[in-house]
Amino acid sequence: MDVKRFAGTYGINYGRIADNIPSPDEVVRLLKESKIRNVRIYDSDHTVLEAFSGTGLNLVVGLNNGLLKDINSSTDRAMSWVQDNVQAFLPETRIRGIAVGNEVLGGSNNDLYGALLGAMKNVHGALKKLKLDDQIQITTAHSQAVFSNSYPPSSCRFKDDINEFLKPMLEFFQDIGSPFCLNAYPFLAYMGDPENIDVNYALFQSTDGIYDPVKDLHYDNMLDAQIDAAYVALESAGYKKMEVIITETGWASKGDSNEAAATVSNARTYNYNLRKRLAKRKGTPMRPKSILKCYVFALFNENQKTGPTSERNFGLFKPDGSIAYDIGYRGLSSSAASLKDLQARYYLWWF
C-alpha cells in the first residue's frame, strides 16, 4: 500500500501547552485556510483526533516520554495504546505516523534511553499485527544533543555515550524504512554564539556563508548545514541512505533580556524565508536530490510552557488565531489578504 505520509514540503507542530488557544475544530479551519496539510501533535488527545476526522490533513501523533517505560515493558500495553489512540480513529483521521518519545537520547533522563527502542518495536509490532504498519510510520525526534560536534558539517559524529542505544535504533529504522528526525534551531545556535555566527546566516539572509573544505561544499544558511551535519553523522555510523526530516525548527518572536535575537522581525524573517526555501523543493548541498521536508515550530504561542520567555513565543499565530507576524497567513480573525499573503499563497500552492 503506497500511502503519502507527507504532502509537499511544509508542516507544522500543533502544541497545546496553553489555556487560551482555539478549539481543535477552529484549529482545523485555520490549518485548512492556511493550506498547511502536515501536522504533528505531542500526544494522542481524542478531541484533536476527532476534530481532524474527514479533513484530509496528515497527522503524526505522539507517544510521550512518560509512557515509554510502560510501553517498553508490555506488548499488550503497546497493542492497547495503538488500538485506543490510532486504530479507533482510522481511516477518517489520517494518522500517518507515531512519534515515540521526543528528544530522549542525549536528554537528561538517562533512564529512558534503554526503554526507547523497545517501546518503538512494541508499537511497530502492534501496527504489524493490525496490518497498519504499511501506512503508519514509527519515528522519534532528536535534538542536537545527540552530536558530539556539528561544525563544520563534515566533522559531525554521534556522541560515544549514546551509541549503544542509537545504533540498534538506526538499524531498526533502516529495516522498517523510517527517517532520522531532527529538531534543528538556528535560533538556539545563534544565541549560543552570537559573536561568531552571522545572524544573516541563521536567518536565510544574504551572507558569505561558510565553506566546508573536507566536503568542498558551501553553505549559505545554517539550517542546511545542520541537516548535512546529521547526514555526515549517519554516514559515519553506516547509514548513508537514511533520510533526514526536520521535525521542529522555528524562531521565537519574544524573549528575556538575555535573548536579544528573539524579536518579531527576526521570527518573521526566519519563517518567511524558510517557506520560500521549502517552496523550491530542493535538497541540501550534500543531498541535493533529497527534497527537504520540515515541520515548523509552532502553530501557537503557548502561555503555559515553562522556561525562558522565548519558549512561550514560537507561534506563527497568537492565541486568538490572529497572526503573530505576517509571513503570508491570514489567521482566523483577519479579513483581507495582504500582498505578501498573496505572494506566499503562490509559493504554498507548490508544497
| Count of structural domains | 1
What class, by secondary structure content?
alpha/beta
Name of the level-1 CATH class: Alpha Beta
Q: Tell me roughly what share of residues is in helical segments.
A: 25-40%
Give the strand order, joined by hyphens, for the main sheet. 1-2-3-4-5-8-11-12
Radius of gyration: 20 Å
| The CATH fourth-level homologous superfamily | Glycosidases
Q: Can you give the mean pLDDT?
A: 93
**Euclidean distance between termini CA atoms:** 23 Å
Which assembly state applies to the chains in this document?
single chain
Q: Globular, elongated, flat, extended or rod-shaped: what is the shape?
A: globular
Number of helices: 11
Low-confidence residue ranges:
334-351
Count every beta strand, where a strand is a DSSP E run of 2 or more residues: 12
The largest sheet, given as strand count, sense and whether it forms a barrel, is: 8 strands, parallel, barrel
CATH-assigned fold name? TIM Barrel
